[in-house]
């Protein structure tokens, strides 16, 4: 996908992609780290991929000034996007923040910006690990 098309995608489409990217990264991380039963893996993965966790991680990253201008633009669009699905087990602000970080992940993935994507995924793991 060329740069122009990716930027024009609906932010919730980017978030949909980003959700899958984060989920796969977290699964790989915990499978290799924990080597335990699937039920336990599922419990642990929620620490990283829940909307609440993603919202807290986003706040930390913003406080640290981690994002580029372009990424901040995607974040804002992701956070302001009107979703017609109801947020599960969370309030709308938390849901929007988690959609925002997922939109950036989806954007980086679709742009094939592997280096920056890997940095962000590893940073997310690091932040959650420091919290728990």
What are the key terms here?
single chain; 132 residues; 7 helices; 79% helix; 0% strand; RNase_III_sf; ribosome biogenesis
Kindly summarize this structure in a few lines.
This protein has 132 residues and is mainly alpha-helical. It has helices spanning 3-8, 11-34, 38-49, 51-63, 69-80, 92-110, 114-131. Pfam families: Ribonuclease_3.
In words, what does this structure look like?
The chain has about 130 residues and is mainly alpha-helical. The chain contains seven helices and no strands. Helix 2 (about 10-35) packs across helix 6 and helix 5 packs across helix 6 (about 90-110). The longest helix has 24 residues, at about 10-35. The radius of gyration is 14 Å and the shape is globular. The N and C termini lie far apart (about 35 Å). About 30% of the residues are buried. The model has no long low-confidence stretch (mean pLDDT about 90).
Give the topology, please:
Blueprint lengths: L2 H6 L2 H24 L3 H12 L1 H13 L5 H12 L11 H19 L3 H18 L1
Helix pairs in contact: 2-3, 2-5, 2-6, 3-4, 4-6, 5-6
Shape: globular
**Share in β-strands:** under 5%
Oligomer: single chain
How many H/I helical runs? 7
Main location: cytoplasm
Subunit structure: Homodimer.
Active site: 19
Family: Belongs to the MrnC RNase family.
